[in-house]
Design brief:
The protein has 376 residues and is mainly α. 65% of the residues lie in helices and 0% in strands. Helix 1 packs across helix 2 and helix 2 crosses helix 10.
Length: 376
């Protein structure tokens, strides 16, 4: 029995794993680790691998909803609802582990603030006009720029990427009614951390480069000597770059899920995501936009009041104690917002991946078979 979460359709050429796949991830397997996996040595299913389990007889029928969502194509609202259900299905992982990760990042940013914050705050203050820093609370202090140093940035990237992997695997198990503990999830993710971080960097940097490239190409019109033509070129080039960046972001939006659940390498996962999204781009974009709007509203409900309270504290009082209190409130509620929002965002993406494979590859039959397996 393999511990690798393999969501690969039997016989699907797209499902063949590349050389970067971790050892033991067999192509064409479905598993949820030690909690209800399908043994690769089990008798073969009927032709194509898509019939009922061996010996089930004609009375067997697929469970309609063994887990957090029905095993059928899902609507946009069902995907969003499934995101909330995924959190309640395994709160110890979805919320507990998220709280540990984001809490650790917040503590690290505070600890590193005295090392990096002073120099960065001085640079910011020197760069701003004198009138901008005049008055109470005008100058930036070390605590005001906590969390923007390069070390915290790297730690935050790695921690958030690993957390996303844990959440995706938890959601994939919840789809078939399984609850996987955090330690088992970590055993599956730890061998893929470098691939996940590389994928996160690539999917973040590439769209930004497209925007810069579009603006740069438009700026070439300035060489003609016409300022108006140059401005128009920059605007149009930037818009084209943004459009290309949106297309690339949506096309690659499911790459991390494919990398984890199919054991793929970085480039293979990007190609797999692009193929899944192709033909349903606008629907995927709509779901991602709805997810972004909901998560932004939830974040604003906590972060905006925190910012107002912090501002009042800094205006009403002065000194390091006031700055520390303001930062603590802001950082605390920002961390709470991240703990609540990140599991929802990761869950929706994992469910969107599942939905597309159900629509395109009949994955619901394989999921139903896995859900019918007795837990061990």
């Amino acid at each position: 029995m393999t511990e690798q979460q393999g969501w690969v359709r039997p016989g699907d050429p797209d499902g063949r794993q590349d050389d970067a796949a971790p050892a033991g991830a067999a192509s064409g397997s479905w598993s949820v680790g030690a909690h209800g996996a399908q043994d690769a040595s089990a008798p073969a299913a009927p032709a194509g691998g898509w019939g009922p389990p061996p010996g089930a007889g004609s009375a067997w029928s697929a469970p309609q909803r063994p887990g957090i969502v029905p095993l059928r194509p899902l609507g946009a609202l069902e995907l969003l609802e499934g995101g909330f259900r995924a959190i309640s299905a395994n709160p110890r992982v979805m919320l507990g582990v998220s709280a540990v990760v984001f809490g650790a990042v917040a503590v690290i940013s505070l600890l590193l603030a005295p090392l990096f914050g002073g120099a960065l705050a001085s640079f910011v203050n020197d760069s701003l006009p004198a009138e901008a820093t005049a008055g109470p609370g005008g100058d930036f202090g070390a605590l005001d720029v906590a969390g923007v140093d390069p070390v915290t940035g790297v730690v935050s990237l790695v921690a958030t990427t690993v957390l996303t992997g844990l959440l995706v695997l938890s959601v994939s198990a919840s789809v078939i009614g399984r609850k996987v503990p955090a330690d088992e999830l970590w055993r599956r993710v730890r061998g893929r951390v470098l691939a996940l971080v590389g994928l996160a960097l690539l999917t973040s940097v590439a769209p930004a480069l497209l925007v810069l490239l579009g603006a740069g190409l438009g700026a070439l019109l300035l060489l003609t000597g016409s300022t108006s033509a140059g401005v128009i070129g920059i605007v149009l080039g930037t818009l084209l770059g943004v459009a290309a960046a949106v297309w690339l972001t949506v096309s690659w939006s499911l790459a991390a899920v494919a990398l984890l659940l199919e054991g793929r390498g970085v480039l293979s996962a990007l190609g797999r995501s692009t193929r899944l999204v192709r033909g349903t781009f606008w629907r995927v974009l709509g779901v991602l936009l709805l997810t972004f709007v909901l998560s932004s509203i939830a974040t604003s409900v906590l972060v905006v009041p925190a910012g107002l309270v912090a501002g009042v504290i800094q205006v009403a009082a002065s000194g390091g104690a006031a700055d520390a209190a303001a930062l603590f409130i802001t950082l605390l509620l920002s961390t709470v917002a991240s703990v609540l929002v990140q599991p929802f965002v990761s869950a929706v993406r994992a469910l969107l991946y599942t939905d597309l494979r159900i629509r395109q590859e009949g994955l619901d039959v394989e999921l139903a078979r896995a859900a019918a397996e007795p837990t061990s």
